[in-house]
């Protein structure tokens, strides 16, 4: 049994997997009407908010949390994505949101068909957090700060 544990520990040390849980692919429409891929956000942290509509209480509450510390998040070049699974709409906020072209599909891909969900995607495209409760903005910042890319950059050579 000890030899199996040792083998697994050695194998885990030699394997190198930057992206353990890749985020789902989605598309969005830019300001001139061109459809873009989520791959355009690679290298930037992304917060995805999924809700039934922009009037959903949890969605509005999470946007309010993001507004509390948005200047700090903007310094990290964060991208905020809204995906509406039932009723499309406009996000009323001073935070620039990108709206997913197919909100129901993104909701399905994140396995959050009903209600509210928040996903935090790191700079490497790894899905670092997925939950269905409103997060305090400091927790979102902590998740982004503890991503693999950030921690790798802080390690000594």
Descriptive labels:
single chain; 157 residues; alpha/beta; Glutaredoxin; 5-stranded mixed sheet; two-stranded antiparallel ribbon; 6 helices; 20% strand; disordered N terminus
* CATH topology title: Glutaredoxin
What is the overall pLDDT average? 81
| CATH architecture label name | 3-Layer(aba) Sandwich
> What's the number of helices?
6
Tally of domains: 1
* Helix/sheet category: alpha/beta
Question: So, the CATH homologous superfamily?
Answer: Glutaredoxin
Oligomer: single chain
Estimated helix fraction:
25-40%
Q: Name the helix and strand elements from N-terminus to C-terminus, one letter apiece.
A: HEEEHHEEHEEHH
Shape: globular
Biggest sheet layout: 5 strands, mixed
The CATH class designation is: Alpha Beta
In spatial order, strands of the major sheet run 5-4-3-6-7
- What separation lies between the terminal Cα atoms? 34 Å
**Are there runs of 5+ residues with pLDDT below 50, and where?**
1-17
Portion of residues in beta strands equals 15-25%
